[in-house]
Fold each of these.
Amino acid sequence: METEREGGDANSVPNPTNGIGTRIAEVADRIGSRKAAAKAAGVSVSTLNRWTTGESVPVFAGVARLCLSAGVSLDWVAYGGQMIGGSDQAPLTLTKPHDLGEQRGDERMEDYAFVPLYDAQCSAGAGAWNDHCRVLTNLSFTRYSLRKQGLTPEHLSAIRVDGDSMEPVLHSGDTVLIDHTRTTIEGEGIYVIRLDDHLYAKRLQRSFDGVEIISANKDYERITVPKERMVELEVIGRAVWAAGWL
């Protein structure tokens, strides 16, 4: 449930400097939008805005949820200094509050894996698929849920879908999680591929003549990559999870 405190007490986030609202705003920007940040924190957009302007004192649980979603340090939000988290630093070890929706209140940050979300539009060109990409943010998954699916965090990344060729399965702006260990076409499935120096999320199907690239949207024709041109088709990995706004 959404809570908000108009005055400080033992359960509110420490506010030793005047910059806590600015730092909360920066965390919200890392997530992408105030609406998405408010949802991550479990509060309304208006409440989040009051936190950033200093009109109300942020509550610990909400700020902890926000930091967990963005992959940054709760200490940094509270005290400033060096931001911890993101794409090139290990997340802070922190006991999660009991009301974050988990079954065990003693779970810690090490129970979570942070997967980089890349700006896929920057990935065209020669070299590794993510050369010249920037990490937009990090998505958090419980290690337990990944293990259940046979996934290892070190071999995962995420990109956003662009275009309507996979509707209604995937919509433009949806996020897909890629397992980079699965680069061999295993029957029919959705894979992230690079073809002609561009990334696509497509359904792949082996055929006698080569590989069929299939769009879910019937307005797009299927493409056949013949066997003699298979070297031009790079399978980045298999899509194993997808999410988007309703």
Amino acid sequence: MAQHRIDSNQNPYHPEKISKKEYLGVQGFFSLDMRVGEILEVEEFPEMRKPSYKIKANFGPVLGKLWTSAQVTNYSRGQLIGRKVVGAVNLGDKTLPKGFVSQFLILGALDPDGTVKLLEVPRTTLIGSVIS
């Protein structure tokens, strides 16, 4: 499943339907840079095929402020602003419609229908903290 889809009738992401991925090795995991960020801005992104937001998050003094697009419209903008999130920050930039550049991938768990539930981060966690 290269691109996730929300489908309440098929439940494509039910844990019983998702097969195990190929062995990656510990080095593959440790190559991924995952950090804690805090959401600063949330904007509608109507140019996307699926309901999405543009999200700006602060990842601290080393990485600074980065943008992403995410299909997390099951959260209101008010629920997102100020929320701490986990982001994969070294996957490279991706150019989306209207020239918007996504700089990180926000992490969440998929409900059986594909709805994203963002990972929870304790409020006292420092932004920029590495996920290990």
